[in-house]
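Researcher: I'd like a structural prediction for the single chain below. Treat it as a standalone chain; there are no partners to consider.
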Amino acid sequence: MRDRKGGFGDFPGGNKEACPVEFTLDVIGGKWKGILIYHLMDGTKRFNEFRRICPGITQRMLTLQLRELEEDGVVHREVYHQVPPKVEYSLTEFGKTLTPIIKLMKDWGEVYKTKQLSAESCPEGMDITV
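Model: Treating it as a single chain, here is the predicted structure.
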């Protein structure tokens, strides 16, 4: 596991009982990690597949995010020694435990997106509940 930065979990006197939510967000937080985990839920992916699926991510950022997920035990990196070299990424058993969380985030995002789109098309002052 990666060495964690202090953040909210650092309390006076050296007590490092970090908030569990902070710990979770350290692993899956950021712009790309949740998205990468979401796509790995469908199965093994190669580096360039991620580049096609997530065109907004730079090669450097993709490499960094995958390395961090690997260091946290969420992603497994399999290197095949062949020509040309082949590397595949998959969720570990531990990584698969994030599936319900990512699915809930997807569901929440769909509801939120619908609500936002409805609010944009609705005349001002009308209450829209989804």
